[in-house]
Design brief:
This protein is mainly beta and about 325 residues long. It has 3 helices and 11 strands, in the order ββββαββααβββββ. Helix content is about 10%, strand content about 15%. It is globular, with a radius of gyration of 19 Å. It starts with about 20 loop residues before the first strand and ends with a strand.
């Protein structure tokens, strides 16, 4: 079936003024991208070069996204009922506006079945992050969530920016440390200090919240990195512009030529081979989230990557922007 049609704003998105005051310049350089020591999709580790670019200091916040919506009248993907033409065979009563919300089970469950903790809730969207009756009051400086790829790209265009490539994101998250497991070194919590908003306890039913947050956190709650960037690891996954492939399309780190500003595969390579009947393309998301836990999802690392369908929003996915001039 064809990929879902883009749900852009009802009126044209007019870019706002060029404003780099909330951005940090990341000088270009060469780094070791990927990892041969963790999940298969992170391999092979290989040398990559990127040119310098500007990057938002933090993920886009609820406050910033609210400004965008107020100016443009934009309606997000989660607020629009699905078009039956995009989902042939779906029962009409299932086609309602909503988004996926994390709801912890009461006890241990089969970790192979994500439906035990994710629920598609009618009325869940960026204004109602945990479903109807919830709000973002008091969460102005938390990252906006329940944004699809199209939503993130619409904001970026309005801000006269773009979304980062996977290479740009990982380069910034590497924090000038080549080859370490984490963005700050080789220990997840050095000297017991939590460096990012991740899960402590046994996922998905036991959240000890030792880092102070059970769900999202303010975007500057954890230490900035050497570039002056916050939250590139943990809190929320972040969209990139690259289509997903199950492995890096690169030779090993011993290859003779270093790719410069590499991009992902073709769109048709991003479909999930396990579900050939559903042809919804997937983008790479990076950084992990507050739901990443040692017993389930050790993706609170710069090399970690995940495939996410462009038509799906969730309560732990956000974004930030870059500018290349």
């Amino acid at each position: 079936m064809p990929p879902p049609s883009d749900k852009m704003a009802r009126s044209p998105i007019v870019p706002r003024w060029k404003d780099r005051s909330d951005m940090v310049f990341v000088p270009g350089g060469t780094f070791l991208m990927g990892s041969d020591r963790h999940y298969a999709e992170e391999a092979p580790a290989h040398r990559v070069a990127v040119d310098g670019f500007w990057m938002d200091r933090t993920p886009v916040t609820n406050r910033q996204f609210r400004e965008f919506v107020a100016v443009t009248g934009y309606i997000t993907f989660a607020e629009i009922p699905p078009d039956p033409k995009d989902y042939p065979g779906a029962l009409p009563h299932m086609l309602y506006a909503g988004s996926l919300v994390f709801q912890p089970p009461s006890g241990p469950v089969d970790l192979r079945d994500w439906s035990q903790w994710w629920t598609y809730l009618k009325g869940a969207d960026w204004r109602h992050p945990c479903g109807p009756g919830t709000t973002i009051d008091g969460l102005d400086e938390h990252p906006v969530v329940h944004v699809s790829f199209t939503d993130a790209l619409a904001y970026a265009k309005w801000a006269d920016k773009d979304l980062p490539t996977e290479a740009e994101y990982e380069y910034a998250a590497r924090n000038q440390l080549d080859g370490t497991d984490y963005a700050w070194g080789d220990a997840l919590a050095p000297n017991g200090r939590h460096m990012a908003n991740t899960w402590q306890g046994t996922f998905p039913h036991e959240n000890l919240a030792e880092d102070g947050y059970a769900r999202t956190s303010p975007v500057t709650a954890f230490p900035e990195n050497r570039y002056g960037l916050f939250d590139l690891i943990g809190n929320v996954w972040e969209w990139t512009t690259d289509w997903y492939a199950s492995r890096h399309q690169a030779k090993s780190s011993q290859a003779c030529c270093t790719p410069v500003n590499p991009r992902g595969p073709r769109v048709e390579e991003s479909y999930d081979p396990r579900m050939p009947q559903i042809r919804i393309p997937r983008k790479v998301v990076k950084g992990g989230s507050h739901l990443c836990a040692p017993n389930y999802c050790r993706r609170y690392r710069p090399a970690a990557r995940h495939a996410h369908p462009i038509d799906t929003s969730m309560s732990h996915i956000g974004f930030r922007c870059v500018a290349r001039s």
